[in-house]
Write a structure and sequence with these properties.
Among the domains are: about 1-35, no CATH class; about 360-455, no CATH class; about 470-570 and about 600-650, no CATH class. The protein is globular. It has 30 helices and 7 strands. About 50% of the residues lie in helices and about 10% in strands. The chain starts with a helix and ends in a 22-residue tail after the last helix. The protein has a 5-stranded mixed sheet with strand order 5-4-3-6-7, with helices on both faces. Residues about 1-30, about 80-95, about 300-305, about 320-335 and about 575-585 have low confidence and may be disordered. Helix 8 packs across helix 30 (about 695-705) and helix 11 (about 280-290) packs antiparallel against helix 19. The protein is an alpha/beta fold.
Length: about 725
């Protein structure tokens, strides 16, 4: 009674006696007492039990059980709906950041196959993982009857799910009310298959969406003609040849040719005027044109060789095997194709003066690269000494990044690290026993390193900014170019910057201007700028554009609007209820809201939408697509045009991400994976994470195709195995 008396007046003690009889493990029933306290008002509540039942069986099943007269009928309702209401995979789905919950009901055989398909695609697991001894032990211990599909079944299921989802995505693309944008690039996989990937970019209810559409093998020359033919076939397969608006690709010459051929193959595609050059690639080319001036010259003979060149040659020899082992696959010839001869137009005297000033920068870069390489290669002497030095100086344990030709911003990252860890590097190079004195930097070299780091910083930040996923950024390219150009000009005029860096920056500025001029021939940049509420035509005025150019930009937008969007049929504008302006507080002046004294709202007539939009003041907008989507009633035609152009990607980074994931799928232990399996795994993995793989896509495959036996092989695919029939 003492415990009960300690309770609040509105609480009681509920003593619940649980009798657990476990025949399998206990010879006699065990009686266990459990005491818990309940609020007396909730003593008969079944809300939590109801929620638990819904999570396990689904709302439809619970309603069916509740509508029955007795327990027997409820069991029948449960048995008849358990496989129809909701798949067990749906029970595992995580809502936002909520805790993942699991059902007490075990997977059926069909559900297990479906979950295996999602798992291997989303997590990039090999098909053979189902044969792993430890994995099978984890899955079958305690439930030896649990069915695990064979590797052959899993491989077949993935490809069939791929074909099913392709049908629905094609239908979705065909029914999409706007135009579609694409990004593309070529890639050679680790198992030496040549692929071309295509990502599609659009929006849904104001949210920009980027998605891998297809990745196909192109087992022949990646010429512009072959790339264009492949691109056209992909568009034709999905039935969207007439919905192509913009294409984003890198600056290689074969991509320019591809755009020219596409213009011939697709009458609706305007060609170069709708080509977007990957801005991240342009940034890399500008930075590389600066850094290439500091490359050491390779000599055929070592007689009377300059000490810095000798050190560079030694570094090249040492790094050769390292680069072969761990350098990611990259088509570096594309970068060289975009660079050209930056010194063209310079006089012999200017080139000679430039060469003379480059020595100190070449020296410090060569020393830092060699130091990083030496520590990496000496795992028994220098690396332990480096780690001990970091501990002694209370610095975070990190290895020095290596400066790799094909890795963007790697020189900046090496310099940034070196300046931060200068104390450790100086201590290591001054230690005679480590034999690193030849890599020691003096104060002047450290000063040059700092100035070069500061010069390259803007390219690193710009690359990160424009590499953010699903962020409309095409309208930001020209302002970014203007800012970088102004920054480089300031560096060129800064007398505290070494002459060698200023001369190299001048060459980088020339490379930037080369691609800036190309935007004059690409209308999509100007249209995106004008349809950005933050810029409109005002940016061009502030940037000092001539009035003739500003008028030309406005005419480009007007012509495209009149040609494609002005006559577009729209639904009646959605009436948005507004609060009664006269129901406000007494402090508000009624004349501020008197209809006859306020300016009329902009009309949404087809002829006036563009003018009305341009007449409004500019405003800062955080989310461009959301801003336009919320104004679809005010601008029922112009909003569609704006969303089409703001979903044009400014970079091909999304394609690069596809290739990065491809390297995970095609590891050195998985080099025999077929082209068809690679394609299906990559596409289904992306589609599933985005929510485009429905349970019905998988259950349809599972229900129509019985599992293969452990010793049964997957049938060969027919040439039209991936045909889209919608």
């Amino acid at each position: 009674m003492g415990k009960i008396q300690a309770l609040r007046d509105d609480e009681i003690c509920a003593r619940i006696t649980l009798i657990i009889a476990t025949r399998r493990y206990l010879k006699r029933p065990e009686i266990r007492k459990n005491e818990r306290f309940l609020d007396k008002k909730d003593a008969k509540s079944t809300g939590n039990l109801h929620k638990h039942a819904v999570r396990c069986w689904g709302e439809k099943t619970v309603k069916a059980a509740n509508s029955t007269a007795n327990a027997a009928s409820a069991r029948e309702a449960l048995a008849s709906t358990k496989s129809l209401d909701v798949s067990i995979t749906a029970l595992f789905k995580r809502a936002a950041k909520a805790t993942v919950t699991y059902s007490h009901r075990q997977h059926t055989t069909a559900e297990a196959r479906a979950e295996f398909v999602r798992w291997v695609c989303e997590s990039k697991r090999p098909f053979q993982i189902v044969n792993d001894r430890a994995f099978r032990s984890l899955m079958k211990t305690g439930r030896p009857g649990y069915t695990i599909p064979s590797a052959e079944t899993l491989s077949r299921d993935v490809k069939k799910v791929f074909t099913n989802v392709r049908q629905r995505i094609a239908k979705m693309m065909q029914e999409y009310e706007g135009q579609l944008n694409f990004a593309t690039d070529a890639w050679t996989s680790p198992n030496n298959h040549a692929f071309v990937a295509f990502t599609v970019h659009f929006e849904h209810e104001g949210e920009p969406i980027s998605m891998l559409l297809d990745i196909v093998e192109l087992a022949k020359s990646h010429s512009g003609k072959n790339l264009a033919d492949t691109f056209k076939k992909v568009l034709a397969d999905f039935g969207v040849e007439d919905k192509l608006l913009g294409v984003t690709c890198d600056n290689a010459s074969n991509m320019d040719t591809m755009i020219e051929v596409l213009e011939e193959l697709l009458p609706e595609f305007p060609g170069a005027s709708n080509q977007t050059r990957c801005f991240a690639h342009i940034l890399n080319l500008v930075a590389k044109s600066i850094l290439r001036q500091f490359d050491t010259k390779k000599k055929a003979t070592v007689a009377n060789e300059d000490p810095i060149d000798a050190l560079a040659r030694e570094l090249d020899d040492a790094m050769g095997t390292l680069l072969d082992d761990d350098q990611p696959e990259d088509d570096s010839e594309d970068d060289e194709d975009g660079l050209g001869n930056e010194r063209a137009g310079m006089s012999a005297a200017e080139i000679a003066e430039l060469e003379e000033s480059l020595g100190p920068v070449r020296a410090l870069l060569t020393k830092l690269r060699a130091f990083s390489n030496a520590v990496k290669r000496s795992s028994t002497l220098l690396l332990p000494a480096w780690l001990a030095m970091l501990k002694k100086l209370a610095l975070r344990v990190r290895n020095m990044p290596r400066d790799v030709l094909t890795r963007w911003n790697s020189t900046f990252e090496m310099l940034e690290f070196a300046i931060t860890y200068r104390g450790a590097i100086d201590a290591m190079t001054s230690e005679r026993s480590l034999n690193l004195r030849k890599y020691e930097l003096d104060d002047n070299e450290w000063l040059i390193a700092t100035k070069l780091r500061d010069t390259l910083k803007i390219f690193k930040h710009a690359t990160l900014f424009f590499s953010r996923g699903n962020t409309p950024s095409l309208s930001k390219v020209i302002p970014a170019m203007d800012h970088i150009d102004a920054t480089l000009a300031t560096t060129m005029d800064d007398m505290t910057v070494p002459p060698s860096i200023r001369a190299a920056v001048a060459i980088g500025k020339r490379t930037l201007n080369k691609y800036y001029n190309k935007t004059d021939h690409t209308e999509v940049y100007q249209i995106a700028m004008v349809l950005d509420p933050q810029h409109k035509l005002e940016y061009f005025t502030k940037a000092g554009w001539e009035q003739e150019w500003i008028n030309a930009a406005r005419n480009i937008v007007r012509d495209e609007y009149d040609r494609t969007y002005a006559l577009r049929e729209v639904d009646d504008p959605v009436e948005i209820s507004k609060p009664n302006v006269f129901a406000s507080s007494d402090d508000a002046n009624i004349f501020d809201n008197l209809p006859v004294l306020t300016a009329p709202a902009p009309e949404s007539d087809a002829k006036d939408e563009l003018n009305a939009y341009l007449a409004e003041k500019t405003e800062k907008v955080k989310d461009l697509c959301r801003w336009w989507y919320e104004r679809r009633s005010t601008y029922p035609r112009l909003y569609r045009m704006a969303l089409d152009y703001h979903t044009i990607p400014a970079t091909s980074v999304d394609v690069e991400r596809v290739f990065s994931e491809g390297r995970i799928i095609l590891s050195h232990l998985r080099s025999r994976l077929s082209v068809q399996s690679t394609r299906a795994l990559m596409c289904v993995g992306v589609w599933s994470k985005l929510g485009y793989v429905k349970d019905s896509d998988i259950t349809k495959v599972v229900n129509q195709t019985p599992p293969l036996k452990d010793d049964e092989k997957e049938a060969f695919l027919t040439p039209d195995w991936d045909a889209i029939l919608v």
